Structure formats: C-alpha cells, structure tokens
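Hey, resending since the last one bounced:
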Amino acid sequence: MRSDALPQRAATDHKVEVGTSGELEAVGPGLAGEPSSNFGYIPPPSGGLAPEHFDQAENEIYVVPNPATPRSLKDWQLDPNHDDPTGVKVEFRHLPESHGKVTVFTLAGDRVVELGFAGRNGNGTVAWDLLSRNGQEVTSGVYLFTVEADHFDRFTGRFVVIR
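The structure tokens again:
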C-alpha cells in the first residue's frame, strides 16, 4: 500500500514506515495479536507488609496457590520428610512486618491450625503443609484465615482446597 493511498486515520497492527520503494513496511513486533506486545511480568509481593501499609492488607495479603488443587500444588510440592510427611504446602504471603499468627478455620468456624510468624526480619511468608492441628490432612473445602499481629487490625481472608 502506498503512503499517499492511506486514509487520514489509518490503523495498523504493526509500526509502519515508508520503505525505499514508497510502500509501507511493517517494522518491529505487532501491537495486537502478538503475545509479547501486552505482557508484563509483575512478581506479587511476598516480603513483609510494612506498618505504613497495614491499612492496605485487604489488597495485599494472599494465599498461593489459590485454589489449591492437585495440579496447582504440583509446583509447590517438596520432597516428603520427617517434618513434612506430605510434601504439599500453601503459603500465606505478604504478612505484616511484626510478630503474629495466622489461624485457619473451616467455614463452620472450627479452628484447623495456628501458624506463628515473625515478620520483623522482612520475611512476609509462612508455609502450611495442609495438615490440621491433629496431624490429619485437610479435606476439600473453603477455608477462612485470620492474620493477627502487633499494631495490626485483624485481617480475614479465604482460600479453597480441592483434593
């Protein structure tokens, strides 16, 4: 297509320039339909949640993988050992930079497990092996969790386990 034949408002999928022959030539990757044209990798926060951001906990504290399915847990599985007989885990991420605990409950309100954390060193992650406080594997279902820490309002979240 010749440049003088272009309408006033031409739209193209690629950046175009007028070539040596006077024809428009595509230059560079496409702007639409090209997977790399709109992809940006942003790693989710996993360090400790700073005190000045405690009011943003609702958007910041999360569980991975969620939902915890056999397929999604595959990437998180470790080799079973004496301390962790299943090798399976989920992680609570971006916890407050202070001492605290994560408590997991069933939807019926039964306490499943309590996990302590010390986020003062900047590590905002605590792992859970999906075993109850009685050492039994948890069943499929929706679970609630609370995060309580020094100088931090209680945060409540939820996640799903599918066995």
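Residues 36 and 48 are 31 Å apart (CA to CA).

Sorry for the duplicate.
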